[in-house]
Each structure stands twice: as structure tokens, then as C-alpha cells.
Amino acid sequence: MARVRDNSNPDQPVINLENVCMQYERTESPALDKVSLRVEPGEFVFVVGDSGSGKSTLIKILLREEKATSGRVFVNGINVSKIRHGKIPRYRRNIGVVFQDFRLLKDRNVYENVAFAQRVISTPAGQIKKNVPSVLSLVGLAQKYKSKPSNLSGGEQQRVAVARALVNKPRLLLCDEPTGNLDPKTTWEIMYLLEEINNSGTTVLVVTHNREIVNAMQKRVVTMKKGVIVSDQRKGGYLDEDY
Q: What is the pTM of this model?
């Protein structure tokens, strides 16, 4: 049985997929078809493609919400496919996740939403009191720690989500359409925040449909179509070619 431990070291990839396939029941075509992808520590990677290209399935496999039909999936040095079901929550401690719809606890204030991520992993109370204000300061919400999500703008709610994803200091931050519900100005604020986080050493992978962002930021761009990686540019924008 695989033990869930962080086998990471500075010389190995944060993500390493080897010929990964994902075949759902009642579908003819695979959601992922022999996908291989290597993401090194400290990289910022966009994953783009039309609906049905396999982007969401990729995120689910990295989070072990889904188990690949075949191939090998390594995240932070862990063979994800071999993790026992009961060990999955512990595995996810080293991965931060930001979703399009924020997924905040509506009945708790900003501080408690972020602190919740620490309590889940049994962080000592004294450490929580240090860590939460520090990460809220990082995302520019130090003064709104008592506010409920309903009293925040969409951009502020997403900043809380980013803070919650970062408070446990993960090596990898996964962002699934993080600006999908935001206006253009707020979208750029979040993207600059993610870039700042990446510059501090965190590996960032962003799934997005936003061509303007991808074209402007000039990061690594992985393009998917029908479950296959059709392009992997080390620095570039959204491809216009019809594959």
C-alpha cells in the first residue's frame, strides 16, 4: 500500500503525468488520452482548451477526485493512483485549490474561512493565530477579517479563497477558472496576485478560457483538445490554430 507522504525534493517535478488515460462509462471517447505532462517546481502554467477538452478531468485526477484508468500520476513525488481512499485528505494538504465559485463557508467570517483550512490538519491554535493574519495581509484583506462573504465583492471573496488555499503553504496551487465570475479589473487583480505567489516559489497551474490573460501574461501554455495535449509552449499565448 502507498503511504501518503511528501517525497518531494527540489530536483523532481511537482507534477509528472505519464501516458494518463481516463475513460468514463457510457462515453465512447476518453476524457484523457495518453496525456503526459511534466511541471517543474516554481513554474506558472496555463492549461487551455474548449469545453470537453479534458481540462476539468485533469484537475480532478491531480486532486484524486477521479482515479486515472491507466498511466501514472505523480504529484509532489507521490504516486497518486496508489493512494488509499482514507489517505486522500492528507495527500491534499500539500495542494492549494481555488475554484471559480469561491466555495466559502457563508456562515463564517473571513478569518474563520481561512482558519478552517488549518484546523482540518490540526494546526495548533497559536500557530493559526499567526498564520491567518499573515496570509490575509498577503492577499490584501487584513482589515476585513471579521467580514462575512456576503459583505464582500466577488474579487474579495476570491482573495479569501486564495488565502485559504495558501495558508497551509502548499508546493502546488491549482486554479480552476479562478476569474470566471469576476469583472475585467478584478480579474487582473487576481492574476497579478497569483503571479506574485508564483514569484515567491509556489508552483501555479491555472485552467482558464480567458484568451486576454493568457496572451498578455506570456507564461507556459498547455493546450488541450479532445483529451489530448496538442501544444505545449514554454512561453506564449492562446493558439488560434485549428487542430
A: 0.89
- Counting Cα atoms < 13 Å in the Cβ hemisphere of 73 gives 24
Element of type H or E holding 114: helix 110-119
Domains for the chain: give ranges and CATH numbers: 15-233 (3.40.50.300)
In the 3-class helix/strand/coil scheme, how is 21-70 assigned residue by residue?
EECCCCCCCCCEEEEEEEECCCCEEEEECCCCCCHHHHHHHHCCCCCCCE
223, containing H or E segment: strand 220-225
Are the C-beta atoms of residues 241 and 65 closer than 8 Å to each other?
Answer: no
CB 194 within 8 A of CB 19: no
Q: Are 20 and 71 in contact (CB under 8 A)?
A: yes
Task: Say what the pLDDT of residue 242 is.
Answer: 45
Distance from C-alpha of 142 to C-alpha of 135, rounded to nearest angstrom: 8
Q: By the 8 A CB rule, do 22 and 31 touch?
A: yes
Asked if residue 114 lies in contact with residue 167, where contact means CB atoms within 8 angstroms, the answer is: yes
Beta bridge partners, 38, equal: 16
Q: What would the grid cell of residue 184 be?
A: 475585467
Tens-place pLDDT, residues 91-108: 988 899 998 888 899 999
How does pLDDT run across 38-81, given as a tens digit for each residue?
A: 999 999 999 999 988 999 999 999 999 999 999 999 999 999 98
Mean pLDDT of the chain: 91
